[in-house]
Amino acid sequence: MRHNKKFNHLSRKKAHRDSLLANMTISLIMHKRIFTTLAKAKALRMYAEPLINRAKQDSTPNRRLVFAELQNKEAVNELFREIAQKIANRPGGYTRILKTGNRLGDNAKMCFIELVDYNELMLNDKPAKKATRTRRSRKSAPKAEAPELPAAEAPAAELPAAE
Q1: pTM of the shown model
Q2: Which of 12, 41, 87, 163 would give a disulfide with 113, using CB separation of 3.0 to 4.6 Å?
Q3: DSSP string, 69-124
């Protein structure tokens, strides 16, 4: 029976799937964003988020557990040093999946998977609030008059030509 075995096998045997997810996690940690298929990104999220969550507490047992999964010293050091500082206050949801459309060759759904705190474009791009005005406020608001410039600051076109 297949009770409680609902996860994507990604058309691979267990050893191949584990090494694929470990390698993708290493790439995600080192590059902060990777481009892959949607199915692999969803499987990667389930694999990587518990490992990233362990990095919040920097202890020898946690480092050993993460290293046992990833087998890469540089990725473990990056995870426990830089990434752990950025995610310290976040309760979960360390990755974001952004769909990009379908691949030309086989029409597979493609996406970016990235670490949430490392996308500077999305962190800095807060849409500016538009000032909403009603018709009443426009009628009742007095018109502001433009200040007049002194002669020294007046544009050259307005000054009389010296002949």
Answers
A1: 0.73
A2: 41
A3: HH--HHHHHHIIIIIHHHTTT--S--EEEEEEEE-TTT--EEEEEEEGGG-HHHHH
What are residue 75's phi and psi, to 5 degrees? -65, -40
Of 162 and 4, more confident: 4
Residues 98-106: contacts with CB under 8 Å, at least 24 apart: 99/38, 100/35, 103/37
Residue 33, beta-bridge partner list: 114
Give the tokens for residue 53.
């969550």
CA gap 154, 149 in Å, rounded:
6
Residue closest to 44 by CA, chosen among 16, 63, 25: 25
pLDDT of residue 88: 93
